[in-house]
Fold this protein.
Amino acid sequence: MHALYQAAGLSLRADLLTLNKAARVKADPSAVRYLAKYISFTGKITIPVLSMHTVGDGLVIPQNEQAYASVVRKAGRSFLLRQVFVSRGQAPAAPDADRPLAGWRAHSGQHEQGGSGARPGLQHLPQ
C-alpha cells in the first residue's frame, strides 16, 4: 500500500488522518434490523440459489462470490448453490445475458407460459 501511494505521489498518512477526522454516520436501527433479517449472509439457504453475473462486472467481483460460497459451504448448504459468470458484457445492456436462466426455467417448468410452478431442481443448474 505504501509503495502504491508513493508511486502516485500521495500521502497515505494524510489520507488516513483525513478519514479519521471525518464525521461518523450512525446506521438507522430499522435498516440494521432489515439487513439482519433479509440480507445478512448466514449461508442457511433453503431453496436453490443461482448467482449469475457477467464477467468483468466491477460491482460483483469473484472474491465476493467466493466469500458467499464459503459461508454457504460452512452452513452445509452447498448443494443448493450454483454460481456462474457469463461473458456477455454489462448485464442490463446484454440481450442474451439471461440465456442461462431462461434455459434453467424452461427445463424446470418455470417458463412464463404454461409452467408447472414447481420449484426447480438443481439438476438443471450448471455445475
